[in-house]
Amino acid sequence: MATAWRRLVLAGAGLLASCGGEAPCPRCDVIVIAASEPPAVLPPLAVETVGRDIGDQVFERLADLAPGGAPIDTTAFRPALAEHWERADSVTLRFHLRKGARWHDGTPVTAGDVVFSFEAYRDSVLDTPAGPSLAALTATAEDSATVLIRFREVYPEQLYDATWHVRVIPEHIWKWIARDQWGADTGVAHLVGSGPYRLAAWQRGQSLTLTADTAGGRRVRIGTAIWRFAADPEAALNLVLSHEADLLESLGSPDRARRVAADSTLSTVSYPSATYGFLGYRISGGRNPNPLAEREVRRGLNMAIDRQTIATAIYGPGAKAPPGPMSQLLWIWDDSVRVLPYDTAAAARTLDAAGWTRGRDGIRRNGRERLTFDILVPATSLGRRRLAEALQEQWRSAGVAATVTAVDFPVFMERLGQGRFDSYIGAWLDEPSPRGLEDQWTTDGIGALNYGGYSNPVFDRLFREALAAHGIGAARRAWRATFDTLNADAPALFLYAPVNVAAVPRGIDGLTVNPYSWLSGLGQIRLRRP
Fold first, then answer.
1. Is the peptide bond before 44 cis (omega within 30 degrees of 0)?
2. Radius of gyration of the chain (CA)
3. β-pair type (197-203, 82-89)
4. Which of 272, 293, 284, 400 is nearest to 344 (CA)?
5. Which of 39, 136, 368, 500 has its CA 20 to 30 A from that of 50?
6. What's this model's pTM, rounded to 2 decimal places?
7. Overall domain count for the chain
8. What are the pLDDT digits (tens) for 498-522?
9. How distant, in Å, are the alpha carbons of 10, 516, 528 from that of 504?
10. Is 320 found in the same domain as 227?
11. Dihedrals phi, psi of 331, to nearest 5 degrees
């Protein structure tokens, strides 16, 4: 039975239909999503998941990358605001805007809006994550409905850079507002897009409502989508369990998924997460002497850990021990990448050969120095703390005395930036391109996200060659060689690549999850309510 809150929403929206009486229509076109409240939904300010999920219903890219598509595969892109495009030359793409494209306020969308949006994303005042990726291209209007994107050089991901990063916003609204004030301007009247849904209301701290925009013959099954805001993940889950919300993007722990599965009106949907987690070693700098600076010590430590068992135990069925720094979602995932095996006997031989032998107390020593190091984790992450404890236990069996230090997240990040750690458990979110791994693992990333200071000229060269490879087959071979080299050096222990588990009602049809924008198919969902 619908709650009083849902009845109020449906009645207020004028969407209570009768089926031979006063009962709600069993195929109601209102859906409610439980989520945290985003700080922004306006591109380019929306950088976290919920804000981007909402923004992707309101604003459009020039083209969309198909779920699972590789950024170097030009056939994997689908028309969005641009109805078609062609290559003008090796460094220029020409995009033709959709005929009749209009903003939700009725103003025509023009090439000038696209140029304005690219400039905004590149503006250092807004400091968007996409800025570096857009630095090597420019957008110009060839005419009112045609945009030219020019690149400084030839490279395989040109179409990806021209389409993935930028959601187009209306110049006629935002050009009058100073960019350093964009973050403070959250008026609904200014959040005008050209996408399938328009922003109808935003009640701070409570909910945000989108309604379908059917101009131009668009047809959707869901007429109204409401994000109901919750203070924390447990409160969001309770909204679903109390049937005050229909959907929850990610349940988190296996225990929370079991609570949903126990409700006969609910179901779960699993899909790959864009996250991968790892333990990173402090290789350069740090304490002196530093056993983790020794390649063979790191290799021995890695072979002492049963990564798959730990990943499954903590993150549930579907979680995998990754073959390198990648989520299950990244297109370069390759099970044929060479990884160090879980082999406690080989680990012992490797550590013995490196000079670290067991003492009477079972702890390995090299002379008077004990083989011990600390694992730094953020106190707010239960999963990472459990990972550290599992590693600590398995390393103890191998004669390694690891300790665990949990600190508040700001302190955690501060210590990483300052190099004040022996090892740490980190997690990164992938985007479709593996280019972001440069800051995390190459020499150029030292001082950015390569906190451990790993540096190998061979790996750096292979990484650049993989990025430049043309064709899916050649690129996969290049990436496999790149990660073979990285894994052999063991700068990190790649621990888990989880799946997300969403909560959904059993009477849902047409839900196709795109993990990079999990509700991108919102308009095609159909609900069958009891």
1. yes
2. 25
3. unpaired
4. 400
5. 136
6. 0.88
7. 3
8. 999 999 998 888 888 888 888 888 8
9. 19, 18, 12
10. no
11. -65, -15
Alpha-carbon distance of 202 to 222, in angstroms, equals 18
Report the CATH number that the domain containing residue 42 is assigned in CATH.
3.40.190.10
Pair (482, 505) in one structural domain? no
Which structure tokens are listed for 175?
């050009």
Q: What pLDDT digit, counting tens, does each position of 354-384 carry?
A: 999 999 899 999 998 999 999 999 998 989 9
For residue 117, tell me if it sits in a domain. yes
CB atoms within 10 A of CB 368: 5
Structure tokens at 73: 């595969």
Residue 389 and residue 493 in one domain: yes
Check if the beta carbon of residue 478 is closer than 8 Å to that of residue 458.
Answer: no
Containing H/E element for 417? helix 409-418
In the structure encoding, which two tokens stand for residue 322, read together? 């990754």
Contacts of residue 228, defined as CB under 8 A and 6 or more positions apart, other chains included, come to: 32, 33, 34, 35, 206, 207, 239, 244, 245
Assign residue 282 the CATH number of its domain: 3.10.105.10
Please calculate the CA angle 300-283-468 and round it to the nearest 5 degrees: 95
Give the other-Cβ count within 10 Å of 264's Cβ: 7
Complete DSSP assignment for 181-207: GGGG---GGG---SSSEEEEEEETTTE
- What's the pLDDT tens digit per position in 416-471? 999 999 999 999 988 999 999 999 999 999 999 999 999 999 999 999 999 999 99
Q: Reduced to 3 states, what is the DSSP secondary structure of residue 89? A: strand
Place of tokens 């990173």: 280
